[in-house]
Amino acid sequence: MKKTGIVVAAILIVAVLVGGFYFTVKRSRVPSKSQQQALTEVEKINTKDLERDYPSTPREVVKFYNRIITAYYFEKISDEELKKMTSQAYALFDAQLQGNNPSEIYLQSVKAEIAEYKSASKTISHADVCDSNDVRYLTDGDDKIAYVKASYFMKEGSDFSRTHEMYILRKDADGFWRILGYYQIEAADNASGNE
Fold this sequence. Notes:
Elements: H1 2-29, H2 33-37, H3 41-47, H4 58-74, H5 79-91, H6 95-100, H7 103-119, E1 122-129, E2 136-140, E3 143-156, E4 159-171, E5 177-185
Antiparallel strand pairs: 1-3, 2-3, 3-4, 4-5
């Protein structure tokens, strides 16, 4: 009987040690909330895994894209960070937009625009995306299209202005909404442009 008690005690000790080791290893792999909060906006953008966590709605795609472009002009970023950020933005683009705008050319145009913004002391101080109820959905043949309106508060020197853009998104074969294009609009413009 004494031998059985020793065996049971030994098994319990081993189970506690294995369980403790498991939780210690698991805890060290998952960043704590304070570690996640310590990431800069650029790091948060660049570490987002779009393969596993792609935005699920047209509005969420535009919101993530806005986080990227706001960081382009507001944050101090290295060339490596910028390349990763443009890669993240590029992943949001529809295949047709990617075909018309190769990734290397997109990177160069973003660099040129950042330089232009810096020379004019211009930043995007805030970006807003329309409410979910204001997203317009249409069908064009087999394509599902969404129109999402975004507003940008720009700061240039000590002056402020507001600009509005309409994003056109198309659902791809995998069911993901991708940015097909965008254009500047007046504040009162609606999604389809013909109502």
